[in-house]
Amino acid sequence: MKSFIKRHIPVHLYYVALIYVVGILFFTQLEQVLIIPEAGKIFLNSFMMGLRFDTVISAYVLFFPLLLLSILTFFKKDSNTVYKVLTYLIVFSFWISFLICAIDIPYFNYFFTRLTTGILPIMNDFAFSFEMILREPSFLIYFFVLIGALYFYQKIIFKITQKIISDRKINFYIHETNYIFFLSVLTCCLTILSARGRLDVKSPIRIGTAYESNFPLPNMLGLNPVFTFSRSLLDDMQNINQNYSLMNDDEAVANVKSYFNGNDTILGSPISRKINFEQPPKNYNIVLVILESMSADKMGYFNNQSPSLTPFLDKISKEGIVFNNFYGAGIHTYNGLYSILTSFPSLMKKHTLKDVVIRNYSGLPKVLFENNYQTIFLVSHDSEFDNMGGFMRANNFQKVFSDDNYTSEEILSNLGVLDHYLFKFGLNEINSLNKNSKPFLAAFLTASDHSPYIIPKNISFSTNRTKEKEKAVEYVDWSIKQFIESASKESWFDNTIFVFT
User: Fold this and answer.
1) What is the pTM of this model?
2) Coil, helix or strand for 451?
3) Does residue 244 belong to any structural domain of this protein?
4) Does 173 score more than 80 pLDDT?
5) DSSP label of 453
6) Which residue range forms the structural domain that includes residue 300?
């Protein structure tokens, strides 16, 4: 095996590969401190997810040494000194990574969240923090584990470097230049892909990628603390995440309390108030359809346009309840999702779905879930875009359906499937939920009213419109009609509230 590797793999690639394997092993051993006490398949998934995030961090650490060695090897300018210098750089980088992992263990056990910049205020008083560590025996255990890990890691890496330097003397430039170039470029591309963490074009790996279950512990165990700390540090550096003070805080709280007739003695919140119901809850099913890019301006019900682009939405608007003073929370999809599902206003310039620590809000899905509702969320495209999937799972949606679940032939663009397919797929899932004899919340996020506009040709929909945007609006309206007409034939229909926003 060794002779095969020496004959076919350039020394610099063999060197980087060995360091990657050793780094993953040490990452894994440090993280086992949190995972070992748990058991079961769901935690095996956490372990596998952890390998993905560990690979992302390793790829970032190793890319520069790999690129530099590849260039120098191609031009036959590499040397033993280069290997030694890069080894010190790599060891230092992984030392920092392992230090973060070690700090994360007690931090996670205490705060039940992976390491973020939230630890920095604690470390402002270094003397106090250091004394606290010395007085807590379990912290000292983690400290000695870290020292042992750092010692054995550097010992193994330096031994690998010595072996590589020895092999270079024997196999110096044994491979053809073109062969070295091809394998080096391929390895660099794979490393970039590994740093990205996902093959999907729409989004790289995110915090929410680790949220594969409905339980917070296994979701967080799959994360690498170097990733979460770095991500939170980058987020804190962005101006959009800085605090804004548009008015005095006390005045703002007093205004909100007045507007909502709040009583902060109930739950400690200025908007909390007690509401007494005269009748028991009806437990209606709820189908929530969040229409991407739809607005009152496009609907005949509001603008009196003739012929209307939305004849079916106009029809059900007249038959149902319309809220005229209902306004968008922002210009982005994530603004609407956040506000609709959490009952919080969109925060100025902040991407509220992408927080490193994904909060669990007392919004619609949580309240219904706690009242024995089944909850599902369906999005037409990649659920990792805008961290939707992770946010939804962290906020009590039991299942999230995305392009991973749909027929590949139906995925026509980066926006995934078209609306009529999304509704058809969702209808089947709702029928499955109904068999459980429990109420449900099914939330849809459509996308067909967003560019690129794609109008399917193999369905009964037709239009005389010439503008693509208008065709798209008519198609969305037609899709909603097909969905409602199909749903009306199901037994659960009469006990269901449909909400379109």
Assistant:
1) 0.76
2) coil
3) no
4) no
5) P
6) 281-500
